[in-house]
Amino acid sequence: MKGRAYSLDALRGYAILTMVLSATVAGSILPAWMYHAQTPPPTHAFNPELPGLTWVDLVFPFFLFAMGAAFPFSIRKRKEKGESELRLVYDALKRGVQLTFFAIFIQHFYPYMLSSPQDMRAWLLAIACFAVLFPMFMRLPFPLPAWGHTAVKLGAYAVAVVMLLTVNYADGREFSLYTSNIIILLLANMAIFGSIIYLFTMDNKWARIAVLLVLAGIILSSEVEGSWTSTLFGFTPVSWMYRFDYLKYLFIVLPGSLAGDFLLEWMNRRGHEEGEDKNDRKAYAALSLSVAIIVCNLVGLYNRWLHVNLVVNILLLLAGWWLLRKSAGSASLWKELFNMGAFLLLVGLCLEPFQGGIKKDVATFSYFFVTSGLACMALIVFHILCDYFRCQRSTAWLVMSGQNPMIAYVAGDLLVIPVLQMTGVFPLLSYLHSNPWLGFLQGLLLTSLSLLVTIFFTRIKWFWRT
């Protein structure tokens, strides 16, 4: 356990696996709370006027929160080792560009993009895309000089470019920089702007909060036609990669970086302590309260029981404050995370009536604050399980997925489903569309296969990194 916070890996793994699960369950036949709140069954037509929150709406903000929480473990540690700010800014830009390329490349090689109906050519090209991503994003485990690894990486990018420009796409489509995976594209923007903001505010948490206040002012006033904020909001020099509107997700990433600071500070304290006086009862109580707060908000906000939800939240938050008011060791970390999560959650609930209620798309301020607060609670849960009780075997599948999230994200679409299609197994899954339980089982099966692929490559230490 020394030197690593497995709770952060587990949170990231939970987010990425539930992201895969939400995309692979059968459509139309499951209860509405099994899908995004704004795309209810049976038609799944997007309704921007429909407020609410489901577990599916939490998976992406949880991943963004974990991304921000990782900044102290990478940027701060590298800065403390003597790396220059210029080098760290360069690496942030490089990572953003790599993620943007990743977003464009995988989107073009999803089988449905290559043929309609899908055929053997499309499935083989998807698998080829998956294979090319290995030399592109991992350091090959061969005894090569530094220039050799660089040459292999550049060669993989060259192969990818040739594939993008020469492949025939379905329905007369052509290669376009604007055809990209929006989730990865948002992550690319957060990798650039979130990293740079953290770099220059790592020693001043209030400055980080001030950045969010300025950002909120710009976003809110950008609706005034002819204002300088409107001009700034609409300025997109490379619109296929960046839009100012993407920066609103910093309201999740930067609070995540504050949680990462708390987590790193706890690890440093732990390294100087001989031992810890454990209080398992407090741990179980904190875990139960954190889970209860997450479930309460999912049920209350989805069903629009806003008054009841607010009252129950206040009672649960007061119980948590009382429980953790005198804490030491790991419990001191839970106290910091709980207090920050409580503040974010209450702000989000106060903003809930604003902008027509909480919504994922177009994302409201309530959505940012509520999901950030719930992410704090989720991090407490995983910290208690992974870093306090050290349930290593039972959480290893989450941790390994979180350590290799890029593979976990694409393994299903680029490897698992093409192989199932080629072997004739995938069409048999249509028999699972007869009732909600079997429809959910489809998602579990496909997610489990993606998980097994991810675990395999994680065990042999083949990691994709930007």
Automatic annotation (TrEMBL):
Domain of life, source organism: Bacteria
InterPro entries: DUF5009
Keyword field: Membrane, Transmembrane, Transmembrane helix
Ranges that cross the membrane: 12-35, 55-75, 96-114, 120-138, 150-170, 182-200, 207-226, 246-264, 284-302, 308-324, 336-354, 366-386, 407-431, 437-457
Keyword Transmembrane helix: yes
Every DUF5009 domain range: 4-263
Keyword Transmembrane: yes
Protein name, UniProt field: DUF5009 domain-containing protein
Lineage per the UniProt record: Bacteria, Pseudomonadati, Bacteroidota, Bacteroidia, Bacteroidales
